[in-house]
Write a structure and sequence with these properties.
There is one protein chain. By secondary structure, the protein is α+β, with helices and mostly antiparallel strands. The protein has two domains: about 10-80 and about 95-155 and about 205-305 and about 505-565, FAD/NAD(P)-binding domain, CATH 3.50.50.60; about 160-195 and about 305-500, 2-Layer Sandwich (Glucose Oxidase, domain 3). It has helices at about 25-35, 55-60, 115-120, 130-140, 165-175, 210-215, 215-220, 265-275, 280-285, 400-415, 420, 435-440, 445-460, 465-470, 485-495, 550-565; strands spanning about 15-20, 40-45, 75-80, 85-90, 195, 200, 205, 225, 230-240, 240-250, 250-265, 280, 295, 305-315, 330-335, 345-350, 360-370, 375-380, 390, 425-430, 475, 500, 530-535. The strands form six sheets. Strands 5, 14, 15, 16, 17, 20, 21 and 22 form an eight-stranded antiparallel β-sheet that branches. Strands 1, 2, 8, 9, 10, 11 and 23 form a seven-stranded mixed β-sheet that branches. Strand 9 (about 230-240) and strand 10 (about 240-250) form a beta hairpin. Helix 1 runs parallel beside helix 16 (about 550-565), helix 4 crosses helix 16 and helix 10 crosses helix 15. The longest helix is centred in the C-terminal third of the chain and has 18 residues, at about 400-415. Its cofactor is FAD.
Length: about 575
């Protein structure tokens, strides 16, 4: 395999199980496997380990950690749409112990029952709503009024009302006046309606997978080793069975041996690792000079994600959302009528557009396509382990996606024109994602200084920065206002959508007879003994939710299936 350093040193410590990736899934799998004191477990993570108490930025409920480049995979980019209007975008992915559960917006949604029933119908037997609901209850059992440190579960909090949430409050009133029911718990009541989104926080802030599952006591287990800053290069496979992992730490090649390997690196890194190890489409692998170990053409295919159109609202006067509250709050679940089980369009409010001072004066209504028909891929451009994979989200490739998302945008614009929203809004448009926004997108010493200067200036002269807030949004293209035909609407949407970082499906589970299936419903990779997938790549279709809770549920379920096999 070209340019991938091959381990030629002596034997390193062997284990009973190796878990690759210490994100939302890997923290759970390592915790559950190591509960058996006889099972020696190694957890490998490419990024740093913040420790069980984490840092103030990670714990911060806004969330501040989402704007820290040091906690994300460097240089990771993906193609949003292809063709003549091809667009690329940065893909934020957590690269630390805790993974994306340490940098996400903490929205704690399960999806709807139909998501899992449809998985089961498609061949993921044992994954119906009735099958998975107990695992959701198990992972959500920590008390949000307490500290979730080492609770072996996360805390799911119901957010309190706040007068500072002007956009959320205005839209909740608007939606109720429009006849949508107010739903108390959107994780058990799957009707269309409006609600306040639950969040994964405890009394001190964010409740990450790291804090909840790898707390102080768990880390003290003599049979659990956590090795951070170690990048996995490929799997060692001999005679159809996984034997270990070849990795690199501080530039030094290392080999870790185990009879069981659990892949928890996520929907982008797990298929990449499989392909580099010779597991994937045989013709494509051989074209790159990689010897085929298992011919599984589904590896890296079926990449699904949510896309969104971010509509910005400039908030009139007064103080915006304080930085100590989660930004995500109100939401509306809608059915387009074009999907058999509904709930396929989702409107989600951010009461603060960004971490800095200007962000508190802009709210965002995200129009999200929750059940896309389009899918993309993760492929290799070279056998070189140093070369990033090719990520093609292929969004809005399917006609129904364009039609349903345009319906959501039109509905959102009607809501934003309501008297209740107009009373607190000083202008509406598409959130601008230019160079200035990109520069302020990360919390650096320079951007923190700029934010403090903006805050001070705004305090002395309240109206001084109003023109700056207006620069955060731009006029909506005419097609998004319904003033054009289908082709113009498609072009406008393709130019406006942003990623939601909820990628799944690239190693989808299903029956072995299905050529595009990569693993069985218990996570066991077809044709490679001892190799199990327990992360977002295993999910056959993206659920109608932020994916953190569904991925954690899957990790709990795969762990239980393995331990009780």
């Amino acid at each position: 395999m070209p340019a991938c350093r091959v381990y030629r040193g002596g034997m390193e410590k062997s284990y009973d199980a190796i878990v690759i990736g210490a994100g939302s899934a890997g923290c759970i799998v390592a915790r559950r496997l190591s509960e058996d004191g006889r099972c020696r477990v190694l957890l490998l993570e490419a990024g740093p380990d913040p420790g069980p108490q984490e840092t103030p930025a990670i714990r911060h409920p806004y969330p501040l950690s989402a704007y820290d480049a040091a906690l994300q995979w460097p240089g990771l980019k993906g193609q949003i749409v292809g063709g003549a209007d091809r667009r690329m975008a940065r893909v934020p992915q957590g690269r630390l112990v805790g993974g994306s559960s340490s940098i996400n917006a903490m929205v704690a949604m399960r999806g709807i029952a139909a998501d899992f029933d449809e998985w089961c119908e498609a061949g993921a037997h044992g994954w119906s709503w009735r099958d998975v609901e107990p695992y959701f209850r198990r992972l959500e059992s920590a008390d949000p009024r307490q500290d979730c440190d080492d609770a072996a579960a996360i805390a799911v909090a119901r957010q309190a009302a706040s007068p500072h949430r002007r956009l959320s409050n205005a839209l909740l009133d608007t939606w109720e006046q429009a006849g949508y029911p107010r739903i108390a718990d959107p994780n058990t009541d799957f009707r269309d309606g409006c609600f306040v989104q639950p969040v994964s926080t405890d009394r001190g802030g964010r409740c990450s997978a790291n804090r909840a599952y790898l707390g102080t006591a768990t880390r003290a287990r003599g049979n659990l080793d956590i090795l951070a800053d170690t990048r996995c290069l490929r799997l060692r496979i001999e005679q159809g069975r996984v034997r270990g992992v070849e990795a690199e730490s501080a530039g030094t090649p290392r080999l870790f041996l185990a009879a069981r390997v659990f892949l928890c690196a996520g929907a982008l890194q797990t298929p990449t690792l499989l392909l580099r190890s010779g597991i994937g489409d045989a013709a494509a692998l051989e074209a790159l000079g990689i010897r085929t170990v298992a011919d599984l053409p589904g590896v890296g295919r079926n990449l699904q994600n949510h896309c969104a159109v971010p509509l910005g609202v400039i908030l009139k006067g007064g103080k915006g959302l304080p930085p100590g509250l989660p930004t995500a709050h109100a939401a509306l679940r809608l059915s387009s009528g074009a999907h058999r089980s509904g709930g396929d369009v989702y409107l989600s409010v951010w009461d603060r557009a960004a971490w800095h001072a200007a962000g508190s004066h802009v709210g965002v209504l995200n129009v999200v396509l929750h059940r896309p028909a389009s899918s993309g891929s993760v492929t290799l451009r070279a056998g070189d382990c140093r070369v990033a994979p090719v990520i093609d989200f292929n969004m809005l490739d399917h006609r129904s996606d364009v039609e349903r998302l345009s319906m959501g945008v039109r509905a959102a614009m009607e809501f934003l024109e309501s008297p209740r929203v107009r009373a607190i809004g000083g202008g509406t448009g598409l959130v601008k994602l230019g160079k200035a926004a990109a520069w302020m997108g990360f919390r650096t010493s320079a951007t923190r200084l700029a934010s403090r200067a903006m805050s001070a200036a705004g305090g002395l002269w309240p109206g001084l920065l109003s023109p700056l807030y207006a620069l955060a949004v731009k006029p909506l293209p005419d097609p998004l206002l319904g003033a054009a035909g289908p082709q113009a609407m498609q072009a406008a949407l393709r130019a406006s959508i942003v990623l939601q970082y909820h990628q799944v499906g690239t190693c989808a589970m299903g029956p072995a007879a299905s050529r595009m299936s990569v693993a069985a419903p218990d996570g066991q990779v077809h044709g490679v003994a001892g190799l199990t997938i327990a992360d977002a790549s295993l999910l056959p279709a993206v659920p109608r939710a932020n994916t953190n809770l569904p991925v954690m549920m899957a990790a709990e379920k795969i762990s239980a299936m393995f331990l009780h096999r």
